[in-house]
Every structure is written in structure tokens, then in C-alpha cells.
Design brief:
Length: 72
């Protein structure tokens, strides 16, 4: 695929995506979709925070164990 073809394909894909987003936002059902997406993102952020918290605790425990073994 040539550079020009890739550019044209990218522009067309962007235009199609923009049209879909505009339709979703402008319709009444788009409101429901926006709320569902917002809820999904909130759940994703919450679960990510939980996972990061567990990872941070695990790393802290590993560092403490390593330091105590080195001081040992």
C-alpha cells in the first residue's frame, strides 16, 4: 500500500468514525449509550485502582522481605 493510499484510507476511516459518533450523540438512544459507556469506564477505573493497590502492596512486601534478608 502506498503512502497516499494509507492517507486516503485513514481520512475515510476517520470520517466514517466521526459520522458514527455524531449519530450516536445526536440520537435519544445516544444518551443511554453515553451513560453506559460512562458507567463502564467508571467500573474499569475502579477495578484498575483495586488491582494497582494489590500490586503496590505486593511490591512493598517484596521490597521489605528483600531488605530484611540483605540486612539479615
Amino acid at each position: 500500500m502506498t503512502k497516499e493510499t494509507k492517507i486516503i484510507a485513514g481520512v475515510l476511516a476517520g470520517a466514517a468514525l466521526g459520522a458514527v459518533v455524531a449519530l450516536i450523540i445526536s440520537t435519544e438512544k445516544g444518551e443511554d449509550l453515553k451513560h453506559e459507556v460512562a458507567d463502564w469506564l467508571a467500573d474499569l477505573v475502579d477495578s484498575s485502582k483495586d488491582k494497582l493497590s494489590h500490586v503496590a502492596e505486593s511490591v512493598a512486601d517484596t521490597v521489605k522481605d528483600t531488605v530484611s534478608k540483605v540486612k539479615g
